[in-house]
Write a structure and sequence with these properties.
3 helices
Length: 71
């Protein structure tokens, strides 16, 4: 931003965690996704993987191990 004299100044301090800084350095870094992640309070809803699916997957794997004829 510029003040009345045309001088540049910072209006607010930027804080970034080490995790976010590392994300910026990754090859698959997406500026748009990064902005959304930092500015939307709930984050990216389509990236949430409910725990119930992990539980179902674990249950199915255990069931198949018990019933599989080669085990």
């Amino acid at each position: 931003m510029k003040n009345r004299k045309g001088e540049l100044y910072m209006s607010e301090q930027l804080r970034i965690s080490g995790k976010d800084l590392g994300a910026v350095a990754m090859p698959e870094f997406c500026p748009r996704c990064f902005w959304i992640k930092r500015n939307v309070p709930s984050g990216l809803p389509f990236q949430i993987f409910p725990g119930i699916f992990s539980s179902i997957d674990s249950y199915l794997q255990r069931s198949l191990e018990l019933t599989h004829p080669c085990s």
